[in-house]
Backbone:
């Protein structure tokens, strides 16, 4: 089954919900890259607010080759140099413009970093192509070498109205009838996380074509029960 977060992922910047200033900042960074002193951008904020989607939408809309990697691939400084280094210098395979996306860079901020973040900073200093990094916690101690040489853009939790609107669009596309209060409650559970809201909508409507308030009330009780169960385990 295709994930709705993938199926309804934005394909252009105008489809990015609730982050107008971040969209503009990323677009300007890429357009002005050649003359910019800082060669990388750090997008940070909670899960599900559109950090990765924003970069992918920009690449798709403006025909950039997107080289995507996750910081979990970088076990130490050597792996950064081996993987990210060449990508930052080699021309696009397709003769197009190129953007490099490194997700979850703050996942390298623990004791096992082994110089990885510092090596990323060195790659950024010499890159020939725009590098965009994402993080949940931009203020992690080990990210200090990066914060000094990148521009940082915060993406905040998405406004409830924007999430409800997106859920309505998906329901329309999937021919799902819904009660307005059900979508609003589902949005409240997501707490500003668009990805979580879409995933919950898909789960709750699997095998049927409607969404009722009673579905959300049951869902809420199950979630509350799970939280209490997990809390009791500690």
Residues:
């Amino acid at each position: 089954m295709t994930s709705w977060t993938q199926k309804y992922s934005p394909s252009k910047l105008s489809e990015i919900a609730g982050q107008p200033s971040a969209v503009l900042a990323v677009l300007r960074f890429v357009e002005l890259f050649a003359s910019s002193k800082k060669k990388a951008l750090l997008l940070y904020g909670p899960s599900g607010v559109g950090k990765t989607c924003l970069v992918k939408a920009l690449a798709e809309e403006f025909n950039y080759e997107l080289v995507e990697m996750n910081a979990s691939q970088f076990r130490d400084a050597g792996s950064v140099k081996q993987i990210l280094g060449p990508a930052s210098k080699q021309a696009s395979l397709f003769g197009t413009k190129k953007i490099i996306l490194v997700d979850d860079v703050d996942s390298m901020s623990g004791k096992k970093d082994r110089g990885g973040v510092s090596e990323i900073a060195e790659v950024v200093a010499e890159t020939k192509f725009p590098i965009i990094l994402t993080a949940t916690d931009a203020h992690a101690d080990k990210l200090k070498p990066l914060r000094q040489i990148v521009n940082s853009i915060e993406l905040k939790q998405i406004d409830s109205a924007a999430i409800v609107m997106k859920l309505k669009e998906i329901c329309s596309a999937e021919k799902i009838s819904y009660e307005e209060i059900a979508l609003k409650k589902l949005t409240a559970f997501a707490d500003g996380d668009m990805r979580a809201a879409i995933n919950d909508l898909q789960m709750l409507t699997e095998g049927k074509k409607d969404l009722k308030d009673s579905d959300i009330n049951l869902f809420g009780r199950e979630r509350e029960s799970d939280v209490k169960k997990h809390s009791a385990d500690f």
